[in-house]
Amino acid sequence: MKNASLLVAAAAAFTVSAQTMAEVIISNHPGNDGTQTAGINESTRTKGMGFTMPGGSDLTLDAVTMRLDINSVDVAPVVEIYSDGGGAPGALLTTLVNPASFSLGIDDYAFAPDGSFTLVGGETYWIVASSASGTYDWKASSPAETPTGLATHVGATFGAYPPASSSSILTTYFVEASSACRADLDGDGQLTIFDFLAFQNLFDAGDPIADFDGDGSLTIFDFLAFQNEFDAGCE
Fold first, then answer.
1. What span, in angstroms and rounded, lies between the C-alpha atoms of 165 and 157?
2. Residue 104: helix, strand or coil by DSSP?
3. Taking the model in full, what pTM does it have?
4. DSSP secondary-structure letter at 42?
5. pLDDT digit of tens for each residue in the chain (235 aa)?
6. Which residues have a Cβ under 8 Å from the Cβ of 228 and sit 6 or more positions away?
7. Full domain range(s) for residue 50
8. CA nearest 64: which of 43, 47, 42, 44?
9. Inter-residue contact 104 to 66 (CB < 8 Å)
10. Quick check: helix, strand or coil at residue 189?
11. In angstroms, rounded to a whole number, what is the distance separating the alpha carbons of residues 57 and 67?
12. Beta partners for 26?
């Protein structure tokens, strides 16, 4: 019982660090919802925002949160991550998963990777917004607000998909990322028993960070996936 109590206490001590491991690496949010905005449609009006990762350790993308003005509830935004093609979006790297629903009006919406996506230190990436159906506005500030943070803003583009023409409108967003070593849940740079405790806390709380097998639900297979990543270690 004494050992069990110590484990429970240790788990409680690491709950906060595990649940707040995501870090905002670049942001110009919340902005002022000014007169500037990027109207997005299916093909001719698409928007790109570029950033360069800080040098050093790689990070795992947790979410891109964008401030959108939704004009129709059946709109289907498409948010993608592109490589850099010399100051504009280059090659498509991944498509992010939309939130469960959209509401009319202005709000923040988080788009997350389908599984794990690594942001490599020193590399440049582009967030590209388009639409599979309907139109919406990606809000911006007036005057423009440059995104800042650990990552560095490198430019904005607009035009036909994928957007290649330079744009002065800096749409409002922020990017959250965390240690690329997913099994290091307490973020101390080592794999220890405390990472198991942090995983259990996240799983018990229903936190999607514990969805290690990426199937959208928390099951015994997430425990197995976590253990496999833990056993494999981190470079």
1. 5
2. coil
3. 0.71
4. S
5. 344 344 344 434 433 333 335 789 999 999 999 999 999 998 899 999 999 998 866 888 999 999 999 998 889 999 999 999 999 999 999 999 999 999 999 999 999 999 889 999 899 999 999 999 999 999 999 999 999 999 999 999 999 999 999 999 999 999 999 876 778 877 666 788 998 998 999 999 998 888 888 888 899 999 999 999 888 887 6
6. none
7. 23-179
8. 47
9. no
10. coil
11. 28
12. 175
User: Do 201 and 130 share a structural domain?
Assistant: no
Token pair in block for residue 193: 């028993």
> Is the distance from CB of 167 to CB of 43 less than 8 angstroms?
no
Peptide bond into 163 cis (omega under 30): no
For residue 107, give both structure tokens: 């709000």
Around Cβ 81, how many Cβ atoms within 10 Å? 21
- 160: domain CATH number is 2.60.120
Whether residue 215 lies inside any domain: the answer is yes
Checking phi first, is residue 74 left (phi over 0); if not, alpha (psi -120 to 50) or beta?
alpha
**Taking the CA of residue 53 as centre, how many other CA atoms within 13 Å lie in the half-sphere pointing to its CB?**
21
How, if at all, do strands 152-159 and 46-52 pair?
A: antiparallel
3 state DSSP class of 106: strand
